[in-house]
Amino acid sequence: MSTNFNKYFEVNKETWNKKVAIHSKSEFYNVEEFKKGKTSLNSYEIEELGDVERKTLLHLQCHFGQDTLSWSRMGATCTGIDISDKGIKEAKKLNSELGLNATFIESNLYDVPQKVKGVFDIVFTSYGVIGWLPDLNTWGKIIAEKLKKGGVFYMIEFHPIVWMFDFLQTPPKLTYPYLNKEVIYEEYKGTYTNSDASIISKEYGWNHGLGEVVSALTNAGLQIEFLHEFEKSPYNSFPDMEMTDDGLFILKENQRMFPLLYSIRATKK
């Protein structure tokens, strides 16, 4: 990985470290209900990944570990990694409080081959993850390297069309090219859980189209089982979205022009 990206990673790490204290107390993450047994996982990933009992699972970019611990509650032996040392510290604290056996490791994704030992039945990542990664070909190779033969990679992510909008404007404005190759810098007050929080979020990110994501995985030798796109999202990420009967969010009918999420399941043959 080029050292040219290190300055971006350091800024992002600093921002995520600031976010942890806010997110862990936010209504969005609802840690108190989580401690009482509520899963942080959504129906898409639970249904599409399936039974994880007695499986080993590596969770990439796990924030402060709620999804990792939710898989652990479902019987998986989990390892979670994240660039934020404060996120990992909070994840370890939650793991201890809940009496679970997950392992958490502070690591930039690109350092996983050095910092995470062994191979896994499942590699998992979800919601707002690949936009922090400048190089998806290396990402795909790391996933393949960390999977056992016959192992499964599963991701669910916001659709690349969603990332074409500038959410710092109201209403969100179509701003960034789908095939944008340059780094995108944003600076704004608050976070996605608490827009009124006092922190200034400084973030560097990269847009990746579906073709780039799929090619990174297939170039690494993984076989795609499916790519699904969804018009409903668990997250109220656009203004004036409507809640559906199943508790998900959807754009208003006259705005329903593109999917909000996609998921990919792939196997290592």
TrEMBL record:
- Leader sequence range is none
Q: Which residues form the Methyltransferase type domain?
A: 59-154
Q: Which Pfam families match?
A: Methyltransf_11
Q: What is its EC number?
A: 2.1.1.222, 2.1.1.64
Name the InterPro entries on file.
Methyltransf_11 (IPR013216), SAM-dependent_MTases_sf (IPR029063)
MF terms from GO for this chain are:
2-polyprenyl-6-hydroxyphenol methylase activity; 3-demethylubiquinol 3-O-methyltransferase activity
Which keywords does UniProt give here? Methyltransferase, Transferase
Superkingdom of the source?
A: Bacteria
Under which main EC class is this enzyme filed? transferase
Name the GO terms of the biological process aspect. Answer: methylation
User: Has UniProt tagged this entry with the keyword Lipid metabolism?
Assistant: no
Query: What's the protein name?
Result: Class I SAM-dependent methyltransferase
**Species the sequence originates in:** Lutibacter aestuarii
Q: What is the lineage of its organism?
A: Bacteria, Pseudomonadati, Bacteroidota, Flavobacteriia, Flavobacteriales
